[in-house]
Amino acid sequence: MGGFLDKPKTIKHNDSGEGNKLLYGVSSMQGWRCEMEDAYYARVGLAEGLDEWSFFAVFDGHAGCKVSEHCAKHLLDNITSTEEFRNGDHVKGIRTGFLHIDEVMRKLPELNQNAEKCGGTTAVCAFVSPTQVYIANCGDSRAVLCRQGAPVFATQDHKPILPVEKERIHNAGGSVMIKRVNGTLAVSRALGDYDFKNVKEKGQCEQLVSPEPEIFCQSRQDMDEFLVLACDGIWDVMSNEDVCSFIHSRLKITNDLVTIANQVIDTCLHKGSRDNMSIIIIAFPGAPKPTEEALEADKRLEKQIEEITREEIETHQITDYYELLQALQDRNIEGLPPGGGLHAKYPVIERTFKELFPDEKCEFYEFYQML
Protein backbone atom coordinates (compact mmCIF):
# COMPACT_ATOMS: atom_id res chain seq x y z
CA MET A 1 0.00 0.00 0.00
CA GLY A 2 1.09 3.58 -0.50
CA GLY A 3 2.89 5.33 -3.30
CA PHE A 4 6.56 5.69 -4.09
CA LEU A 5 9.05 8.54 -3.97
CA ASP A 6 11.23 9.70 -6.85
CA LYS A 7 14.26 8.58 -4.84
CA PRO A 8 14.51 6.62 -1.59
CA LYS A 9 14.94 8.17 1.84
CA THR A 10 18.00 6.35 3.13
CA ILE A 11 18.41 7.97 6.56
CA LYS A 12 18.23 5.21 9.15
CA HIS A 13 16.86 5.09 12.66
CA ASN A 14 19.08 2.95 14.88
CA ASP A 15 18.85 1.47 18.33
CA SER A 16 20.91 -1.01 20.33
CA GLY A 17 21.31 -2.49 23.76
CA GLU A 18 22.55 -5.40 25.82
CA GLY A 19 21.61 -7.41 28.86
CA ASN A 20 20.65 -10.92 29.94
CA LYS A 21 23.64 -12.15 27.89
CA LEU A 22 22.04 -10.75 24.74
CA LEU A 23 23.07 -8.03 22.32
CA TYR A 24 20.64 -6.41 19.91
CA GLY A 25 20.82 -3.92 17.08
CA VAL A 26 18.01 -2.20 15.18
CA SER A 27 17.89 -0.50 11.80
CA SER A 28 14.82 1.07 10.24
CA MET A 29 14.56 3.03 6.98
CA GLN A 30 11.72 4.58 5.00
CA GLY A 31 13.19 3.73 1.60
CA TRP A 32 11.04 4.27 -1.49
CA ARG A 33 7.71 4.59 0.32
CA CYS A 34 5.99 7.96 0.66
CA GLU A 35 5.47 7.33 4.38
CA MET A 36 7.28 5.43 7.09
CA GLU A 37 4.75 2.95 8.46
CA ASP A 38 7.07 0.55 10.34
CA ALA A 39 7.53 0.57 14.10
CA TYR A 40 9.50 -1.57 16.54
CA TYR A 41 10.05 -2.23 20.24
CA ALA A 42 13.08 -3.66 22.03
CA ARG A 43 13.52 -4.15 25.76
CA VAL A 44 16.05 -6.17 27.72
CA GLY A 45 14.75 -7.07 31.16
CA LEU A 46 11.02 -6.95 31.88
CA ALA A 47 9.28 -5.88 35.07
CA GLU A 48 7.34 -7.86 37.66
CA GLY A 49 9.66 -10.81 38.19
CA LEU A 50 10.72 -11.07 34.55
CA ASP A 51 14.11 -9.39 34.89
CA GLU A 52 15.80 -12.21 32.97
CA TRP A 53 13.29 -11.98 30.11
CA SER A 54 13.56 -9.72 27.06
CA PHE A 55 11.05 -8.65 24.40
CA PHE A 56 11.50 -7.60 20.78
CA ALA A 57 8.93 -6.79 18.10
CA VAL A 58 8.63 -5.40 14.57
CA PHE A 59 5.41 -3.94 13.19
CA ASP A 60 4.78 -3.25 9.50
CA GLY A 61 1.87 -0.84 9.14
CA HIS A 62 -0.31 -0.30 6.10
CA ALA A 63 -2.76 2.50 5.24
CA GLY A 64 -0.96 4.66 7.79
CA CYS A 65 1.34 4.33 10.78
CA LYS A 66 -1.10 4.83 13.68
CA VAL A 67 -1.84 1.16 14.32
CA SER A 68 1.79 0.03 14.10
CA GLU A 69 2.92 2.82 16.43
CA HIS A 70 0.15 2.05 18.94
CA CYS A 71 1.06 -1.65 18.96
CA ALA A 72 4.76 -0.86 19.42
CA LYS A 73 3.86 1.08 22.57
CA HIS A 74 1.24 -1.21 24.05
CA LEU A 75 1.45 -4.83 22.85
CA LEU A 76 3.95 -5.90 25.51
CA ASP A 77 1.78 -4.64 28.37
CA ASN A 78 -1.32 -6.22 26.83
CA ILE A 79 0.46 -9.58 26.87
CA THR A 80 2.25 -9.50 30.23
CA SER A 81 -0.84 -8.21 32.06
CA THR A 82 -2.95 -11.23 31.07
CA GLU A 83 -3.82 -13.73 33.76
CA GLU A 84 -2.47 -16.57 31.62
CA PHE A 85 0.95 -14.97 31.16
CA ARG A 86 1.25 -14.04 34.84
CA ASN A 87 0.39 -17.64 35.80
CA GLY A 88 3.05 -19.12 33.53
CA ASP A 89 0.96 -20.11 30.50
CA HIS A 90 2.95 -17.87 28.21
CA VAL A 91 1.61 -19.18 24.90
CA LYS A 92 -2.01 -18.53 25.89
CA GLY A 93 -1.01 -15.19 27.38
CA ILE A 94 0.58 -14.06 24.13
CA ARG A 95 -2.53 -15.07 22.16
CA THR A 96 -4.86 -13.33 24.61
CA GLY A 97 -2.73 -10.19 24.51
CA PHE A 98 -2.91 -10.00 20.71
CA LEU A 99 -6.69 -10.46 20.68
CA HIS A 100 -7.15 -7.97 23.51
CA ILE A 101 -5.16 -5.14 21.93
CA ASP A 102 -7.07 -5.68 18.69
CA GLU A 103 -10.38 -5.22 20.50
CA VAL A 104 -9.11 -2.21 22.45
CA MET A 105 -7.88 -0.43 19.30
CA ARG A 106 -11.25 -0.94 17.59
CA LYS A 107 -12.78 1.41 20.16
CA LEU A 108 -10.14 4.15 19.89
CA PRO A 109 -11.48 7.05 17.81
CA GLU A 110 -7.98 8.26 16.88
CA LEU A 111 -7.38 4.95 15.07
CA ASN A 112 -10.77 4.73 13.39
CA GLN A 113 -11.63 8.19 12.17
CA ASN A 114 -11.98 6.95 8.59
CA ALA A 115 -14.23 3.91 8.62
CA GLU A 116 -13.77 3.38 4.89
CA LYS A 117 -10.01 2.88 5.19
CA CYS A 118 -8.94 1.66 8.60
CA GLY A 119 -5.22 1.02 8.82
CA GLY A 120 -3.58 -2.05 10.22
CA THR A 121 -0.25 -3.67 10.95
CA THR A 122 1.51 -7.00 10.84
CA ALA A 123 3.38 -8.02 13.96
CA VAL A 124 6.22 -10.37 14.76
CA CYS A 125 7.57 -10.54 18.30
CA ALA A 126 9.78 -12.65 20.52
CA PHE A 127 10.08 -13.19 24.25
CA VAL A 128 13.54 -14.47 25.15
CA SER A 129 13.77 -16.20 28.53
CA PRO A 130 16.86 -17.90 29.98
CA THR A 131 15.69 -21.26 28.58
CA GLN A 132 13.09 -20.55 25.86
CA VAL A 133 12.29 -18.28 22.94
CA TYR A 134 8.59 -17.60 22.40
CA ILE A 135 7.89 -16.27 18.91
CA ALA A 136 4.56 -14.95 17.65
CA ASN A 137 3.68 -13.66 14.20
CA CYS A 138 0.57 -12.16 12.68
CA GLY A 139 0.94 -11.26 9.00
CA ASP A 140 4.01 -11.35 6.77
CA SER A 141 6.71 -9.93 8.98
CA ARG A 142 8.99 -12.82 9.85
CA ALA A 143 11.23 -14.25 12.55
CA VAL A 144 14.19 -16.49 11.71
CA LEU A 145 16.41 -18.30 14.22
CA CYS A 146 19.97 -19.07 13.11
CA ARG A 147 22.33 -21.79 14.28
CA GLN A 148 25.75 -22.39 12.71
CA GLY A 149 25.07 -19.93 9.92
CA ALA A 150 21.79 -21.46 8.76
CA PRO A 151 18.09 -20.99 9.60
CA VAL A 152 16.70 -23.68 11.89
CA PHE A 153 13.29 -22.08 12.43
CA ALA A 154 11.22 -19.48 10.60
CA THR A 155 7.66 -18.26 10.94
CA GLN A 156 5.31 -18.69 7.99
CA ASP A 157 3.95 -15.55 6.32
CA HIS A 158 0.18 -15.25 6.52
CA LYS A 159 -0.80 -14.77 2.90
CA PRO A 160 -4.36 -15.04 1.53
CA ILE A 161 -3.37 -17.79 -0.92
CA LEU A 162 -2.48 -20.25 1.86
CA PRO A 163 -5.19 -22.95 1.98
CA VAL A 164 -6.11 -22.41 5.64
CA GLU A 165 -6.22 -18.64 5.23
CA LYS A 166 -8.17 -18.85 1.97
CA GLU A 167 -10.75 -21.15 3.55
CA ARG A 168 -11.36 -18.73 6.42
CA ILE A 169 -11.69 -15.80 4.03
CA HIS A 170 -14.24 -17.68 1.92
CA ASN A 171 -16.16 -18.80 5.02
CA ALA A 172 -16.41 -15.14 6.04
CA GLY A 173 -17.93 -14.23 2.68
CA GLY A 174 -14.78 -12.81 1.11
CA SER A 175 -12.63 -13.73 -1.84
CA VAL A 176 -8.97 -13.93 -2.79
CA MET A 177 -8.16 -12.00 -5.96
CA ILE A 178 -4.68 -11.14 -7.25
CA LYS A 179 -3.38 -12.88 -4.10
CA ARG A 180 -5.14 -10.30 -1.89
CA VAL A 181 -8.11 -10.31 0.48
CA ASN A 182 -11.01 -9.01 -1.63
CA GLY A 183 -8.38 -7.88 -4.11
CA THR A 184 -6.94 -5.21 -1.80
CA LEU A 185 -5.07 -6.46 1.32
CA ALA A 186 -1.92 -8.55 0.80
CA VAL A 187 -1.96 -10.18 4.27
CA SER A 188 -4.60 -12.44 5.77
CA ARG A 189 -3.79 -11.74 9.42
CA ALA A 190 -3.15 -8.35 10.99
CA LEU A 191 -3.96 -6.12 13.91
CA GLY A 192 -6.39 -3.34 13.04
CA ASP A 193 -7.95 -3.43 9.56
CA TYR A 194 -11.44 -3.31 11.08
CA ASP A 195 -13.08 -2.80 7.71
CA PHE A 196 -12.18 -6.48 7.15
CA LYS A 197 -13.56 -7.57 10.54
CA ASN A 198 -17.26 -6.79 10.40
CA VAL A 199 -18.93 -10.16 9.74
CA LYS A 200 -21.32 -10.23 12.73
CA GLU A 201 -22.03 -13.98 12.73
CA LYS A 202 -18.30 -14.80 12.84
CA GLY A 203 -15.96 -14.76 15.82
CA GLN A 204 -12.90 -12.54 16.24
CA CYS A 205 -10.56 -15.10 14.66
CA GLU A 206 -12.98 -16.08 11.88
CA GLN A 207 -13.08 -12.75 10.08
CA LEU A 208 -11.71 -11.96 6.62
CA VAL A 209 -8.57 -10.78 8.38
CA SER A 210 -7.69 -12.44 11.67
CA PRO A 211 -5.76 -10.88 14.58
CA GLU A 212 -4.77 -14.31 15.87
CA PRO A 213 -1.02 -14.91 16.02
CA GLU A 214 0.77 -18.17 15.39
CA ILE A 215 2.92 -18.87 18.43
CA PHE A 216 6.00 -21.06 18.65
CA CYS A 217 8.26 -22.09 21.51
CA GLN A 218 11.90 -22.91 20.80
CA SER A 219 14.21 -24.25 23.50
CA ARG A 220 17.45 -22.29 23.64
CA GLN A 221 20.62 -24.14 22.72
CA ASP A 222 24.31 -23.35 23.05
CA MET A 223 24.55 -23.34 19.22
CA ASP A 224 21.98 -20.53 18.88
CA GLU A 225 23.70 -17.62 17.12
CA PHE A 226 21.06 -14.97 16.54
CA LEU A 227 17.39 -14.28 15.99
CA VAL A 228 16.18 -11.93 13.26
CA LEU A 229 12.86 -10.09 13.29
CA ALA A 230 12.13 -8.14 10.11
CA CYS A 231 9.34 -6.81 7.95
CA ASP A 232 8.68 -8.00 4.41
CA GLY A 233 10.79 -5.23 2.90
CA ILE A 234 13.74 -7.43 3.89
CA TRP A 235 12.28 -10.81 2.94
CA ASP A 236 11.07 -9.56 -0.45
CA VAL A 237 14.64 -9.63 -1.75
CA MET A 238 16.60 -11.88 0.65
CA SER A 239 15.71 -15.42 1.64
CA ASN A 240 15.99 -16.82 5.15
CA GLU A 241 19.23 -18.50 4.10
CA ASP A 242 20.56 -15.26 2.57
CA VAL A 243 19.93 -13.25 5.73
CA CYS A 244 21.40 -15.88 8.04
CA SER A 245 24.54 -16.46 6.00
CA PHE A 246 25.08 -12.73 5.48
CA ILE A 247 24.74 -11.82 9.16
CA HIS A 248 26.84 -14.84 10.17
CA SER A 249 29.65 -13.67 7.88
CA ARG A 250 29.44 -10.05 9.09
CA LEU A 251 29.63 -11.12 12.75
CA LYS A 252 33.10 -12.47 11.99
CA ILE A 253 34.11 -8.94 11.01
CA THR A 254 32.35 -6.79 13.64
CA ASN A 255 30.29 -7.24 16.79
CA ASP A 256 28.49 -3.95 16.13
CA LEU A 257 24.96 -5.18 15.44
CA VAL A 258 23.76 -1.74 14.33
CA THR A 259 26.43 -1.69 11.62
CA ILE A 260 25.37 -5.17 10.50
CA ALA A 261 21.65 -4.27 10.58
CA ASN A 262 22.40 -1.19 8.46
CA GLN A 263 24.34 -3.34 6.01
CA VAL A 264 21.38 -5.72 5.67
CA ILE A 265 19.04 -2.84 4.87
CA ASP A 266 21.46 -1.22 2.42
CA THR A 267 21.99 -4.55 0.70
CA CYS A 268 18.23 -5.07 0.38
CA LEU A 269 17.85 -1.57 -1.05
CA HIS A 270 20.59 -2.32 -3.59
CA LYS A 271 18.85 -5.59 -4.42
CA GLY A 272 15.72 -3.65 -5.32
CA SER A 273 13.46 -3.60 -2.24
CA ARG A 274 10.85 -0.88 -2.65
CA ASP A 275 9.27 -1.08 0.80
CA ASN A 276 9.91 0.33 4.26
CA MET A 277 12.55 -1.82 5.93
CA SER A 278 13.04 -2.64 9.61
CA ILE A 279 15.17 -5.32 11.23
CA ILE A 280 16.16 -6.35 14.75
CA ILE A 281 19.13 -8.67 15.20
CA ILE A 282 19.32 -10.37 18.62
CA ALA A 283 22.68 -12.07 19.19
CA PHE A 284 23.03 -14.95 21.64
CA PRO A 285 26.26 -15.97 23.43
CA GLY A 286 26.91 -18.53 20.66
CA ALA A 287 27.13 -15.89 17.93
CA PRO A 288 30.36 -15.76 15.89
CA LYS A 289 33.07 -13.41 17.09
CA PRO A 290 35.29 -11.17 14.94
CA THR A 291 38.55 -12.74 13.78
CA GLU A 292 41.69 -11.23 12.27
CA GLU A 293 41.46 -13.73 9.43
CA ALA A 294 37.96 -12.61 8.46
CA LEU A 295 38.89 -8.93 8.79
CA GLU A 296 41.91 -9.33 6.53
CA ALA A 297 39.89 -11.31 3.98
CA ASP A 298 37.27 -8.55 3.85
CA LYS A 299 39.95 -5.89 3.37
CA ARG A 300 41.47 -7.91 0.52
CA LEU A 301 38.04 -8.31 -1.06
CA GLU A 302 37.33 -4.58 -0.96
CA LYS A 303 40.74 -3.83 -2.44
CA GLN A 304 40.06 -6.34 -5.20
CA ILE A 305 36.65 -4.78 -5.95
CA GLU A 306 38.28 -1.35 -6.14
CA GLU A 307 40.89 -2.66 -8.56
CA ILE A 308 38.29 -4.40 -10.74
CA THR A 309 36.17 -1.24 -10.75
CA ARG A 310 39.11 0.83 -11.96
CA GLU A 311 39.96 -1.82 -14.53
CA GLU A 312 36.42 -1.85 -15.96
CA ILE A 313 36.37 1.94 -16.17
CA GLU A 314 39.78 2.17 -17.86
CA THR A 315 39.47 -0.84 -20.19
CA HIS A 316 35.97 -0.12 -21.46
CA GLN A 317 36.05 3.67 -21.08
CA ILE A 318 33.03 3.61 -18.80
CA THR A 319 31.93 6.98 -17.51
CA ASP A 320 28.33 6.06 -16.59
CA TYR A 321 27.74 4.65 -13.11
CA TYR A 322 24.79 2.50 -14.17
CA GLU A 323 26.79 0.95 -17.01
CA LEU A 324 29.55 0.26 -14.50
CA LEU A 325 27.20 -1.58 -12.14
CA GLN A 326 25.94 -3.74 -14.98
CA ALA A 327 29.48 -4.56 -16.07
CA LEU A 328 30.54 -5.50 -12.53
CA GLN A 329 27.53 -7.76 -12.07
CA ASP A 330 28.88 -9.84 -14.96
CA ARG A 331 32.28 -10.29 -13.32
CA ASN A 332 32.95 -13.48 -11.37
CA ILE A 333 34.33 -12.07 -8.12
CA GLU A 334 35.19 -14.68 -5.51
CA GLY A 335 34.72 -14.20 -1.77
CA LEU A 336 31.72 -11.88 -1.89
CA PRO A 337 29.60 -11.83 1.30
CA PRO A 338 27.30 -14.88 1.23
CA GLY A 339 23.68 -13.86 0.88
CA GLY A 340 24.63 -10.31 -0.04
CA GLY A 341 26.88 -10.72 -3.03
CA LEU A 342 28.17 -7.69 -4.90
CA HIS A 343 25.18 -5.63 -3.71
CA ALA A 344 26.71 -5.66 -0.23
CA LYS A 345 29.83 -3.97 -1.59
CA TYR A 346 28.20 -1.18 -3.60
CA PRO A 347 29.69 1.43 -1.22
CA VAL A 348 33.19 0.41 -2.41
CA ILE A 349 32.16 0.79 -6.05
CA GLU A 350 30.52 4.14 -5.41
CA ARG A 351 33.53 5.46 -3.52
CA THR A 352 35.90 4.43 -6.31
CA PHE A 353 33.67 5.92 -9.01
CA LYS A 354 33.44 9.24 -7.12
CA GLU A 355 37.22 9.41 -6.85
CA LEU A 356 37.54 9.11 -10.63
CA PHE A 357 34.46 11.15 -11.58
CA PRO A 358 33.73 13.59 -8.76
CA ASP A 359 31.24 15.56 -10.85
CA GLU A 360 29.20 12.59 -12.08
CA LYS A 361 26.06 11.32 -10.38
CA CYS A 362 26.26 7.81 -8.95
CA GLU A 363 23.00 7.26 -7.13
CA PHE A 364 22.32 3.53 -7.46
CA TYR A 365 18.54 4.06 -7.29
CA GLU A 366 18.52 5.64 -10.71
CA PHE A 367 20.06 2.42 -11.96
CA TYR A 368 16.98 0.51 -10.75
CA GLN A 369 14.61 3.04 -12.28
CA MET A 370 16.20 2.25 -15.64
CA LEU A 371 15.63 -1.52 -15.37
N-end to C-end Cα span: 22 Å
Radius of gyration (Å): 22 Å
Number of helices: 11
Envelope shape: globular
Kindly describe this structure.
The chain has eleven helices and 14 strands. It has helices at about 65-80, 85, 90-105, 165-170, 230-235, 240-250, 255-270, 290-315, 320-330, 345-355, 365-370, and strands at about 5-20, 20-35, 40-45, 55-60, 120-130, 130-140, 140-145, 150-155, 175, 180, 190, 215-220, 225-230, 275-285. Strand 1 (about 5-20) and strand 2 form a beta hairpin. The chain is globular. The model has no long low-confidence stretch (mean pLDDT about 95).
Tags for this entry?
371 residues, alpha+beta, six-stranded antiparallel sheet, 11 helices, 26% strand, globular, metal-binding, PP2C_C, phosphoprotein
Short account of what is shown:
The chain is of the alpha+beta class and 371 residues long.
Element layout with pairings:
Blueprint: E1 4-19, E2 22-33, E3 38-44, E4 54-62, H1 66-80, H2 83-86, H3 90-106, E5 120-128, E6 132-138, E7 142-147, E8 150-154, H4 163-171, E9 176-177, E10 180-181, E11 191-192, E12 214-219, E13 224-230, H5 232-235, H6 240-251, H7 257-271, E14 277-283, H8 292-316, H9 321-329, H10 346-356, H11 364-369
Antiparallel strand pairs: 1-2, 2-14, 3-4, 4-5, 5-6, 5-11, 6-12, 7-8, 7-13, 9-10, 13-14
Helix pairs in contact: 1-3, 6-7, 8-10
Cofactor: Mn(2+); Mg(2+)
Organism: Glossina fuscipes
InterPro entries: PP2C, PP2C_BS, PP2C_C, PP2C_C_sf, PPM-type-like_dom_sf, PPM-type_phosphatase-like_dom
